[in-house]
Amino acid sequence: MSPRHIHIQDVAPRDGLQIEPRPIATREKIELINALSRAGLAKIETTSFVSPRAVPSMADAEAVLTGIDRVPGVEYAALVPNSRGAERALACDLDELNLVMSASRTHSQANLRMTPEDSLSEFAKIAALVRDQVPLNVSISTAFGCPFEGRIAAADVFSLLDRIAALGMERVTLCDTTGVANPAQVLSMSQSVRQQWPSLRLTLHFHDTRGMGLANVLAGIAAGVDRFDTSLAGLGGCPFAPGASGNVCTEDVVHMVHAMGFTTGIDLAALLQRAQAMPALVGHDVAGQVAKAGPADRRYPWPATERSSTSCKPA
Amino acid sequence: MSPRHIHIQDVAPRDGLQIEPRPIATREKIELINALSRAGLAKIETTSFVSPRAVPSMADAEAVLTGIDRVPGVEYAALVPNSRGAERALACDLDELNLVMSASRTHSQANLRMTPEDSLSEFAKIAALVRDQVPLNVSISTAFGCPFEGRIAAADVFSLLDRIAALGMERVTLCDTTGVANPAQVLSMSQSVRQQWPSLRLTLHFHDTRGMGLANVLAGIAAGVDRFDTSLAGLGGCPFAPGASGNVCTEDVVHMVHAMGFTTGIDLAALLQRAQAMPALVGHDVAGQVAKAGPADRRYPWPATERSSTSCKPA
Predict the structure, then answer these.
(1) Would the pLDDT of B181 be above 60?
(2) In terms of CA atoms, which chain A residue is nearest residue B143?
């Protein structure tokens, strides 16, 4: 049932950098995306075609996509909030457009100023515009719970999946936007989705807000899911939980699944090197553990002297 | 196969505080243990009967155990490194003595200045001294890997379990001392141990050094293990990985297993309140996520104004 190869999809250039207070230069974004490409990520969410007035930090979307080196085998995706964004994105040689909606009416209204039905109508317009030029993925925010409404009924998410499928879209990401999902819920939800929509290209998108991120990835894998959104150095997050962790950390997820015997096609050493440069880019400490501690197979020299300073006293 | 009730055993007063640079007063230790007792922990590792010269911070072992309030149903344990420690511990009304050894010869030499065979001989002396007055638990350090030797063969750990069983000891803790275990290894190792030693009272002890702590707890539960060592606010750690996380965090583990439907008998709200006081006690920031973000069922008011400052932009 478990897959052997896991597709790791980095969202740091969009979901991560978007929330950073320090302005990130276009050339820094290009350098980050190129490093992720060289490290072998399966997909990279490069930018967002939102209104430059609403999100000034993403105003350079076209410049980023013109500037990066495309590595064969890596998919380059961008977030597209509406038809206008889709028109801009179509001119940029992308491998996927990522549309967003929210499973929670309250979150949808607060975050997108639309109802879920408005979102689905907009998706129909985008689909008509894009036709078969680029695959469309739909990311469903708050699919595991909402900071306003609490638990979202799985049946409501499944109903959205039916309506998305009816639009001819075959790729969906279930997003745990505020880090409330638990592994039992992830296992059960993922199993149901894979049973009911077997041909869907399903991605899980977790935040580590409450420390359950990697446990949720594990639960997803146990249900047979083989695609996960992650963010280099755990960048990203949510203003609802200041000080808490953001998206699950790419290098920590890759380190764990490699240790478990899965393949990802990713060069972990290159990823760790790039992750270690992230605090300098964003100007603050970041969440990843493996970049600090080194991988599990790291060896230490025998502590010939100074026993007390090098030993992990019992136990 | 999965258990319904999980025994959460807090090691912060011993494994956590032992590594703290700031001296912790006896009355502060007593207050911490009393708070953990009231919150409903299954077991608390209260202190260590090591030589006061070797570990000055644990010199008040007797005073701590005299000062605490014993709550019925909570087990009070202490670490005992040798026969001399066992003699002191026997006078202190404990529910368990925790003996330590290391599965790795190199780590054993570096950390305990003994071979694993020396440790087993010492355990035999302790068993003869203690007889049936108090149950003995053996904690096996580096059971999942060693910072000097790398991977430890499961067969070597199983051989130790045979020799521990031959000494009449029925409680064992497998310790991932430097946070190198991965969930596949934990699942496989735990399944083997539970099959081969079905009556053993098995505990798993994880560190979150590489972010895999809660995923490893999940793997342990999947193998039917129902006892885990955890540390309030994730205190503890290892000098091999400065800046990295320490023991798995009690409140984050309790939060996860409760969300999954398991019982622990623990009052999570009380635990979170006490965890939030830990930075003031130890004088630095701590690792737990739930104490910062609040539990997953936390609700937020509708963001009537200032959309950009309260929304988690897509997705």
Answers:
(1) yes
(2) A315
